[in-house]
Specification:
The complex is a heterodimer of chains A (about 110) and B (about 110). In chain A, strands 2, 5, 6, 10, 11 and 12 form a six-stranded mixed β-sheet that branches. Chain A has a four-stranded antiparallel β-sheet with strand order 3-9-8-7, with no helix packed on it. Chain A is mostly beta strands. Chain A is about 0% helix and about 50% strand. Chain B is mostly beta strands. Chain B has no helices and eleven strands. In chain B, strands 2, 4, 5, 6, 9, 10 and 11 form a seven-stranded mixed β-sheet that branches. Chain B has a four-stranded antiparallel β-sheet with strand order 1-3-8-7, with no helix packed on it. Chain B is globular and about 40 Å long. The chains are: A mainly beta (about 110), B mainly beta (about 110). Chains A and B meet through strand 6 and strand 11 of A and strand 5 and strand 9 of B.
Chain lengths: ~110, ~110
């Protein structure tokens, strides 16, 4: 069965430090890949997406993600986090077969001064 | 006005009651989805619809039903609410093109007592 795995439930990072959030997927072919962010009490906002081409994609708010086919991964990165980045982050995929949008379980990011 | 509107935003209901959550969109998208969010479980797909005459079960459809009244409207019903249906519910829409992201409503917080 298709699945999306975010192995880190909760990550704490100091303000100004770098960040990497992990996402792995299990599908037969390369799916369409997304990262969404959910601030407290809010809906989901798209950070970035990957469909094809350059495997390093840039998103909003200074985020980027790299697609690695050999590792079935799509990790989210940011060189220097800001207190406003505290939120929950979700990796999601659309599979070619059934075209459902499937989410990982999310990673909650806490920023400390 | 928001592109994807969910009503109500908050609701408390009693066990055994029937309740309907409504979603309307002004984006002209064909595809609509209902998800529920629970802490630690991410967003799980309840039902999805790729056009007005198409309804599909997601991974957790038991205890729920849906109606696609028009391209712009997709409602979720709990025929007989139970406490473990207490959750945050999100409606989302996307166009037919796979390479475009989904857009989310602000969510409905449902509590079943």
């Amino acid at each position: 069965a298709q699945s999306v795995t975010q192995p880190d439930i909760h990550i704490t990072v100091s303000e100004g430090a770098s960040l990497e959030l992990r996402c792995n997927y299990s599908y037969g072919a390369t799916p369409y890949l997304f990262w969404y962010v959910q601030s407290p009490g809010q809906g989901l906002q798209l950070l970035l997406k990957y469909f094809s081409g350059d495997t390093l994609v840039q998103g909003i708010k200074g985020f980027e993600a790299e697609f690695k086919r050999s590792q079935s991964s799509f990790n989210l990165r940011k060189p220097s986090v800001h207190w406003s980045d505290a939120a929950e982050y979700f990796c999601a995929v659309v599979n070619f077969g059934n075209e459902k949008l499937t989410f990982g379980t999310g990673t909650r990011l806490t920023i400390i001064p | 006005d928001a592109d994807v509107t969910q009503t109500p935003r908050n609701r408390i209901t009693k066990t055994g009651k029937r309740i309907m959550l409504e979603c309307s969109q002004t984006k002209g998208h064909d595809r609509m989805y209902w998800y529920r969010q629970d802490p630690g479980l991410g967003l799980r797909l309840i039902y999805y619809s790729f056009d007005v005459k198409d309804i599909n079960k997601g991974e957790i459809s038991d205890g729920y039903s849906v109606s696609r009244q028009a391209q712009a409207k997709f409602s979720l019903s709990l025929e007989s609410a139970i406490p473990n249906q207490t959750a945050l519910y999100f409606c989302a829409t996307s166009p037919r093109d796979r390479d475009t992201e989904a857009f989310f409503g602000q969510g409905t917080r449902l509590t079943v007592v």
